[in-house]
Amino acid sequence: MAIFLLVATACAPAASTGARGSEPRSAATAAATAPATPLPTPTPFKLTLGGLFHPSASVPADPAHVRTLIATGDVIPARLVNVAATNRHDFLWPFRPTADYVKNADATFINLESPLLAGCATRSTGMVFCGNTAFVDGLTAIGTKVANLANNHVNAGPDTEATAALLQQHGIQAATNLGPPAILDVKGLKFAFVGANAVTSGPPVDREALKAVIQHARSQADVVVVQFHWGKEYERQPMIAAGVAPDDPIELGHLAIDAGADLVIGNHPHWVQGVEIYNGHLITYAHGNYVFDQVNCYPEIGADYRTYCSDDTRTSVIGTYTFVDKHLVAATWKPTFTDTNLQTQWADADRAGQVLKTMEDASVTLAQKEGEPTT
Asked: Which helix (H) or strand (E) is 335 found in, with range?
């Protein structure tokens, strides 16, 4: 399976603003001396697009200092996915082929874009989503530790509260929209997870509230991970969706890093998008559809049915983000492809290679636009 390793070399961090400056340190020194306390500084390992997509070496590290985070694309166990699982009496069905890999991390962070409700009726169409509560067993099967509930289908209200309570009963924390961070102890370090929904069909994200919740998380944890729901659907580049997602994802991603985030995870566009290295930190704009039913479409759905269901909407990447102590030093992406039975499979080698090449091309295009290094 084609995956890429992000090579991190010890060097001075990129220029940044405010409290994010730090002195250069060697990789060995950083690993040996990094204190287990919150420290809002950029990684002393230089992350580059060239090292990301064309690695030349791995980063040696004491396993005791290594922590891994897996992030998935959108998880939407609703509509036809709910129908398929209900008919099979198997709510692990969508996850089975990928579960062993996805759970093999110190923490797994998903975007759950459907409430899980008792009495959820099976329906094959519509934009009001719900899934059977038994899908929580699928989430535990993939090792979910935190579920982002800050999105346009699960955001606030009784259904969100019921879903959060169900998750908690099964040992899964919820990151709600600009709510208190979900905090995990990961091998002795605290990881904080923040959720933010920018698909509002209304006002933009409250910048001051966003900065405040990230800064609060920063004061509580050693590593801060922010997941956004943002941008225009069915696009390769992050962009505003007028009337639906009024915020520029690039601006929000930069703001999150400047406010203290160590890693930004993006979702919502239903296509895999590129990544950005901003002030020495990684922003991933969209992981695609991990579990959803945008597979079997037909003209009656509408004139855009070929966009709504395509190879792109059947594709996602499972991101593995590797930290040495508090510093992100590596990332890999493993592509998936949803079959016509609505089960997520690993992409074959040819498809996986093309997905990763598309990610690279999108990342380079974005870097050129932003005046950032492309190598």
From this structure: strand 327-338
